[in-house]
């Protein structure tokens, strides 16, 4: 093996290329900010924006609206809603006000060029700029203002930031800054850092144009769910609208569950085809257990809440009861550790146990009426817990699939 071949296989080549690339970008950014006509125009426009220049604000609002409309479409497709939205454009002034107060208290310091910084080296961090020399804000300025506004609005003692692990350092800086400012909620700030998602073909890299947007990924997963549904033929007799509604639920369950089942901090590979596998550790697998129970309950008709003459529980039935009793504890662990994968994996384990129970024991044709009623009620309780758990994950359950 030649040196060049070894160099290429070990990845040193890629690291070197990215090192050179980053140096070039750094120098280009430095030139852009200090000497470029466009850079000067951008800085001038930012000053005009913060001075509420009508023309600049109108252009900014128009462009922002395009983005917000796109966000709204994506979130609507995901079934995500927000109780309150905080816009950085509405919080940066509070951030600047907080920094000015901190400057007077010597929390921050000012350089000769009038830029404002904070020294966090005692916390094993670095010096961080919080206001530019021209007085305009930076990202952390807005984050400081947003944290203040959230506390003013809700008086909360805990704020959880759900942001990718690429921003770990940023939040260390933000949280340490809020502690230096003496904010009463500073110790309650928490960064729920999550690992990045890769595709089977490799890492998604913006530099190489291999990033897949959320809308395209949703469409791909739903298409996989549609193909699976057509192959099974279980809902073919339904109207097109009813079929599509079920396929949407299956597709979104596949997408959400496949991601949520992995502990947040871990990097993961998302495989659209694997995510809809009815036999794998997937959302559709859990949904299938629920659908199977609904089918059983429909066939059973009216269900009595009374159980008579059934005291000799089978080991598998006791196991199902124990799993159902474990549900509240699973929620508590998930909340304590900020880890929804705990609930996802609980739902999968419960569904797996029910599928086995259904295979090993007759429910509608049980050995006696007492056994039948008990197993029906056990099945109903299982369906209720599965539905509740998946709802906590933002996943809907279909009645057919």
Can you describe what's shown?
With 401 residues, the chain is mostly helical. It has 15 helices and 7 strands. It has helices at residues 3-9, 12-34, 37-50, 54-78, 88-104, 139-154, 168-180, 214-232, 240-260, 272-275, 283-300, 315-325, 327-337, 341-360, 369-392; strands spanning 109-110, 116-119, 127-131, 159-164, 189-194, 197-198, 268-269. Helix 5 crosses helix 6, helix 11 packs across helix 14 and helix 13 packs antiparallel against helix 14. The chain is elongated. The two termini are 54 Å apart.
Task: Compose a concise summary of this entry.
Helix content is 61%, strand content 7%.
* DSSP strand tally: 7
Amount of helix: 55-70%
Q: Spell out the helices and strands N to C.
A: HHHHHEEEHEHEEHHEHHHHHH
Low-pLDDT stretches: 1-21
């Amino acid at each position: 093996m030649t040196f060049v071949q070894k160099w290429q296989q070990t990845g040193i080549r890629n690291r070197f290329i990215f090192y050179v690339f980053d140096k070039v970008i750094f120098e280009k950014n430095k030139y852009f900010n200090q000497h470029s006509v466009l850079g000067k125009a951008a800085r001038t426009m930012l000053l005009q924006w913060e001075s509420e220049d009508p023309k600049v604000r109108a252009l900014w609002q128009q462009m922002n609206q395009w983005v917000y409309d796109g966000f709204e479409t994506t979130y609507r497709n995901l079934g995500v809603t927000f109780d309150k939205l905080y816009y950085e454009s509405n919080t940066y002034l509070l951030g600047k006000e907080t920094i000015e107060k901190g400057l007077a208290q010597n929390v921050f310091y000012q350089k000769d060029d009038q830029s404002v910084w904070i020294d966090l080296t005692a916390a094993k961090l670095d010096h961080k700029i919080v206001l530019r020399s021209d007085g305009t804000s930076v990202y952390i300025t807005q984050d400081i203002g947003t944290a203040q506004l959230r506390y003013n609005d809700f008086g909360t003692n805990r704020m959880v930031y759900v942001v990718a692990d690429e921003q770990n350092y940023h939040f260390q800086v933000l949280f340490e800054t809020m502690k230096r400012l003496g904010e009463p909620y500073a110790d309650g700030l928490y960064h729920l850092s999550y690992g990045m998602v890769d595709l089977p073909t490799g890492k998604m890299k913006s530099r190489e144009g291999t990033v897949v947007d959320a809308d395209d990924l949703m469409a791909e997963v739903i298409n996989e769910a549609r193909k699976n549904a057509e192959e099974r033929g279980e809902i073919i007799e339904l109207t097109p609208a009813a079929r599509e509604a079920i396929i949407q639920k299956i597709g979104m369950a596949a997408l959400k569950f496949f991601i949520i089942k992995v502990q947040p901090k871990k990097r993961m590979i998302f495989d659209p085809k694997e995510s809809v596998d009815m036999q794998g550790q997937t959302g559709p697998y859990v949904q299938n257990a629920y659908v199977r129970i609904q089918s059983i309950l429909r066939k059973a008709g009216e269900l009595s809440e009374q159980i008579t003459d059934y005291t000799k529980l089978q080991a598998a039935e006791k196991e199902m009861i124990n799993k159902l009793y474990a549900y509240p504890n699973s929620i508590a662990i998930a909340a304590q550790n900020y880890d929804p994968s705990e609930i996802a994996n609980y739902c999968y384990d419960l569904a797996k146990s029910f599928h086995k129970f259904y295979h090993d024991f007759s429910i509608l044709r049980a050995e006696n009426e007492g056994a039948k009623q008990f197993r029906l009620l056990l099945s109903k309780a299982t369906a209720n817990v599965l539905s509740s758990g998946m709802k906590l994950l933002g996943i809907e359950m279909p009645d057919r699939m």
